[in-house]
Specification:
The complex is a heterodimer of chains A (386) and B (149). In chain A, 5% of the residues lie in helices and 34% in strands. Chain A has 386 residues and is mainly beta. In chain A, strands 1-2-3-4-5 form a 5-stranded antiparallel beta sheet, with no helix packed on it. A 5-stranded mixed beta sheet of chain A has the order 8-7-15-11-12. Classes of the chains: A mainly beta (386), B mainly alpha (149).
Amino acid sequence: MAATSPVWADGFVDLDLPSEPVRRELTGAFPQKGQMILQRSRPPLLETPFEVFDRDVFTPNDQFFVRWHWAAIPPQIDVATFRVAIRGHVNNPLSLTLADVLAMPRVEMAAVNQCSGNSRGLFQPRVAGGQWENGAMGNARWTGVRLRDLLDRAGVKASAISVRFNGLDEPVVDGAPDFIKSLDIDHARDGEVMVAFAMNSEQLPLLNGFPLRLIVPGWYSTYWVKTLNDIEVLDAPDTNYWMATAYRIPDTPHANVAPGQTGFKTVPINRMVPRSFFTNVRSGGTVRSGTTVSLRGIAFGGDRGVAQVEISMDQGQSWQNTSLGRDEGTYSFRQWSTQIRAPQSGKLLLQARCTNTQGEAQPAKPNWNGGGFMRNVIESVELSLV
Amino acid sequence: MPEFLNSNVDIETRRITGRAALVQIAAMPIILALGATLVPRGEVSAKDNSAAVPAAGALDSLSGGGTTLRSVNVEFPDPGRLFPGGDKAEAINNNCLACHSAGMVLTQPYLSRAEWRSEVDKMRNIYKAPIAAEDVAAIVDYLVSRRSK
């Protein structure tokens, strides 16, 4: 099939999806990016190989996942001429240079950036869309300025209801909906939402949003607008396609509905929910029977911190606590580790469960919705004893 | 210049001939990023031109508060991939590659004919894909024939 593969593919990986096709190309061909799992070349969808999450609590910029909606992405950005506008229902519309932004008081925050559809490929029944395994997420230390400070500088009018964000990417065809997203004014001004110019102490890779990216801690990545150049204060809720039609979830616990169900209320996807993963063992691996086995992984609490991560060796009948690594902040990945005694024979089914500081724990049953959004079921890994 | 996979390229003139030529052009991200001839889009063209030509005396980097930001100028890889299947793939290759490469379509799980039809309708009606009405059936047929079991 040479004629149908990109000439620049490096090799292949088989994702752990419930049905075919599971094979994906690996590629290092994208600018400023290392080796990634290729989900789509244009516009790029690049997944982080899962072993990256075992190496550090922060995800390296060059292997941080990439997701764009439209193919018209500017390949060239000049830091001297770039401007970000703050306009709409403000008293003093602004067009700021990057020098203006760098001169403002800055904040730093570790936060997980996760695609709304991370793990969509694991949904059963399967659903259409990007067939990610678990690597459409990453954790970085973001440096930038508070969105509140930018809005205050422009002087938000009392009539403000929401704030809409646009980046330099554009649709390829006329009349198609430009990718724009909004937050309620109170959320936009909460002092945590920020506009970042650095990621893990370096400028962002272009494909991750250089030179400015909106950071919405605890919320899904769809709001984290890349190559952010326009901030528009609205005096009404935003009814654009990407808020009113796309990225909607059922307004039900865990955004869960039955396949085929209709007639339920929907809301824009919003806060994230807790998740945890094994990073040093994968299903299909082996361990020596009767030995002590070290296990480790990462967890995050969604829009809260991680309170605990527990593991089970008996399909959820009993749970044992793990040790948590250094706390890098409420919205960060948190490493966990523990040791277990492998049984003498049979299979070893391991499960990990995160509970956040609000007392919200991962559910035992997977959720389902047609968009493939918000998966956070307890993860399982099955190992063979040798 | 990206490598052309399935058409005739005259090395001297770099002219492309053959039925696949239009498709190859559609698959070239740089041309589309510039909003050129296949799907004209004035705004994109204007915006990218302004970004592509730095103002006279523009700096390659600027610093503030201990942070330095450097201008970027990157090249995206050629998506270089057609939908396989020869004549059966003609409609999908001619209509769909302008907006997105083939990869994500070819890695979809089993979807029913109705689900594929709904995807194609979404591309036409919401995302404004310029797909001729008479090509829809051939595209859906292709997607159904390709689906995984």
